[in-house]
Amino acid sequence: MTHSLTKKYKDFLALDSVSLEIREGDIYGLIGRNGAGKTTLFKCVMGLAKITAGAVEINGAKNGLNSARRQIGFMINPSFFPYLDPRQNLEYLARVKGVRKSGEVERLLKLVGLHGVKKPFKAFSLGMKQRLGIAGALLGSPPIVVLDEPINGLDPEGIADMRAVIKNTNRETGTTFIVSSHILSELDLVATRFGFIEAGVLVRDITHKDLHEQTKKSLIIEVNDVARAQKLLKTKLNISAEVSDNQLFLKSHLDQPQQIAKTLVGGGLELYRLQRQEMTLEEYFMKLVGGHND
Questions:
Q1: Which of 32, 94, 102, 179 has the fewest CB atoms nearer than 10 Å to its CB?
Q2: What is the C-alpha radius of gyration for the chain, rounded to an integer number of angstroms?
Q3: What is the CATH classification number for the domain harbouring 113?
Q4: Distance separating alpha carbons of residues 192 and 207, to the nearest angstrom
């Protein structure tokens, strides 16, 4: 979807050569702290911000993107007529988009929990605005939907509702979703792939399965000779251990700590630490990008 996409605001580099591939049918979770570049990336894709360098590609098209962009429904900072109620706003948007499908507005209002609401948009809570924004993005059943922080301002019930909307729509229609959030635990419940962005740089692109492989339970071992311990485990127990920062990490044989310890000590090594650990998704993110969460 993007090729070495770069965006500068004067001397500020908001996006630094971001190459992002979204596959048809993905629910792609774009993870990043506030200010990491998520919204800027979406604005460049949608033509709401002029790119400095690189390219955007939509369904194979790199030029004349206005037509291709009509295939994308998006929610970035939901904005509607303040004096219109949700039905009136969606009906107007349907006319602008040329959506004439009977019952479409009614269907979407029920889908996002705004059916029967009569008050104007200006009186909406943040969560209600998000709901209407999502309905607007889904209007006309576009093949690609971009949602920027869709659960912002929603209560737990609203978050669960939006999760269901995304998963069900993807499953029933094959709609491709690109969803940004700074809350990894929520995206983990819906996304099939993830992109981690920090300071305008895409630092990791990973599948849901591989993400959980890297965060699953492990045994952490500290000894006086890492290389010798790695060889000993392989020859005596046929255990392959990864080495990082002078520590051994075992992803298998987690139920055999006593046998592992006995093998290492019996091989003449000094065992300083043998601990079972599971990294949370948030810890993985912070390890990946460094620093402290906002």
A1: 102
A2: 24
A3: 3.40.50.300
A4: 6
pLDDT in tens, 219-238: 899 999 999 999 999 999 99
Residues 6+ apart with CB under 8 A from 141: 173, 175
- 290 assigned to some structural domain: no
177 lies in some domain? yes
* Whether residue 114 sits in one domain with residue 158: yes
Q: Is the pLDDT of residue 279 over 80?
A: no
Which helix (H) or strand (E) is 44 found in, with range? helix 38-46
Residues 32-56 have pLDDT tens digits of 988 999 999 999 999 999 999 999 9
Tokens of 100: 């004439």
- As a whole number of angstroms, the distance between CA 193 and CA 287 comes to 19
Burial 160-188 (b: 16+ CB within 10 A, else e): ebbbebbeebbeeeebbbbbbbbebebbb
**Euclidean distance between CA atoms 32 and 135, whole angstroms:** 24
> Distance between CA 30 and CA 241 in Å, rounded?
31
pTM: 0.79
Any domain includes 291? no
SS3 category, 23 = coil
CA distances from 101 to 84, 134, 145, 243, 271 (A): 21, 18, 18, 58, 69
Provide the residue count of the chain. 294
- Residue 263 belongs to what domain range? 218-277
Helix (H) or strand (E) holding 242: strand 242-244
For 32-185, where are the E strands, in sequence order? Answer: 53-56, 72-75, 144-148, 176-181
Residues 143 and 238 in one domain: no
